Amino acid sequence: MPNLFTLVLQITVILAVCRVTGSLFQRFHQPRVVGEMFAGILLGPSLLGWIAPHFSAYLFPSGSLGFLNALSQVGVVIFMFLVGLEIDPKELKHESHSAVLVSHVSITAPFVLASLLALFLYPRLSDDSVSFTNFALFMGAAMSITAFPVLARILQERDMMKTKLGSLAIACAAVDDVTGWCILAYIVVLIRAAHKTTPIWITLAGIVLFAAIMIYGVRFLLREFEHTFRKHGAISENGMAFLILLALGSALCTERLGIHLLFGSFLMGAIMPKEPRFVRYVVERLETITIALLLPLFFAFTGLRTNVGLLKGPGMWFYCGLIISVAALGKLGGSMAAARLSGMGWREAAGLGTLMNTRGLMGLVILDIGLDVKVISPALFTMMVIMALFTTFMAVPVLDLICPDQAEPVSAKPTSLPTAVLQEIA
Amino acid sequence: MSGRSRNFVFAYAFLVALPLIGLAGVLKTGRGLTAPRAIDGLWAFQIDAGAQTGCSGFFASIPDKVISISQSGKSFLLSIPGEPRIAATGTLEGNAIRATVTSRESLQSCSGPAQLRLVANVEKEADSSVISGQLSDATCSSCASAVFKATRKEDAPRKGGR
Predict the structure, then answer these.
(1) What is the nearest CA distance from B107 to chain A, expressed in angstroms?
(2) Distance between CA atoms of A282 and A262, rounded to whole angstroms?
(3) Fewer Cβ within 10 Å of end Cβ, chain A: N or C?
(4) Average pLDDT over chain A, rounded to whole?
(5) Which of B12, B33, B84 comes nearest A119 by C-beta?
(6) Is B15 in the same domain as B62?
(7) Mean of the pLDDT values across residues A358-387?
């Protein structure tokens, strides 16, 4: 049984630190989420555990972390449902040539560079229980992801949502996220299959069948929610509870199939009806508890696993610097080059590259999975967390530098992105 | 095919298809690489009963004598579950393990504050790995080294897929 006092104390301290740090970061025009991610690291062994080990051991005894993790994972499951909900496949279908090129290059460039970097890092930061292929593919997936919610928040704050650059960035980030999660699902299946007696083809067939049922069956049944909403202007409590049940049920299915809880909730969100008012309504009812209460727990749990003390000596910091440079070169450089080849101006291309380079919370979620399945070591996890934080942190100042004025507005096509959730997330 | 579409096809082939072929090459090359031996996980620590004096006396007090190793390539962090104040950092070179115990509160051995050093080898025994070696106190030349053996607590390491 969890020690209730310890758990409530942990939640209180985490929320307080996350709120204060998030507000401080907002003062410097950084998205709140960056501050909250940073707060998680402050609460971990990198700072609190280092300066006050007794208090840290009292506040976060190792036996209590399982409960904190469970709560935080529930939060991430619902958060991934919300992220899936925000992604509108129709927007992806209408992509122009340039969007297709930029989105695909923004995946392949960091992916290939990360796998090249893996040739150097594998003998240094991994061990022989991890295959090189899994290691390299994971590094690629972690580096090619884009933080869709953070990116959307930055665009919204800068009033760039309806600009050519903004809509292109949103479309590309959506493609990146979907592709990144598919690649990650494949890696997790490979890794978990190595420890199972079930042949991998059965697992893969199960996943394909599940996805087909969801996309071609469940998706049409979900329209009933939208019809009810149109008719009554609201969804009953029972309806909302059923919606959450569906997200959790889908998460359980993918976990059972051998991928991860998060894929199921993301998929359920992605196949939900995309009528903007309906999306906003659902999001508004789920966001407060998820974003204000549960996600900070995830940041804290990630921070507790991030130990900057593991980066001892200049060699380790060199690896860390190399990871950041390769991540930025691949994502920012790749997107920028593709945008430039598609006919965008240098400034716009650089702005797009900078936006695509934000990894934020999505990066942390992927890294946590990597550490869970032990495809990355604790030191490499720390380096990758620093990379995710750094690339997210750099977005706003770099954008200020290269895009001080707003880009060219495009047609007033309404975006399906629910602004309320983006405000809260970021 | 219009000029714009042709440019798109060329750009796509150059920036997407070509790197993907390169990725296949990288993955093939990487298969030949070797990473350090895996020692990550929980280990049951057994110290030679006859030598549990002086500097090794501290290890006799470890609950259940379980140590946890958190490995990152050639370096690792050795800790004792439930004892956050004490940790050892070490390196792994081939099969050879070297570690130094660091503590926020000085460990007391027969000659005052101890500076424990661990020198060991990791070997395969049947299906499991075994770490065997010696613990010594660098500050105490008269203290005898303690011989120890550690065996994996898990049946098989639950790691990232090989």
Answers:
(1) 16
(2) 19
(3) N
(4) 86
(5) B33
(6) no
(7) 90
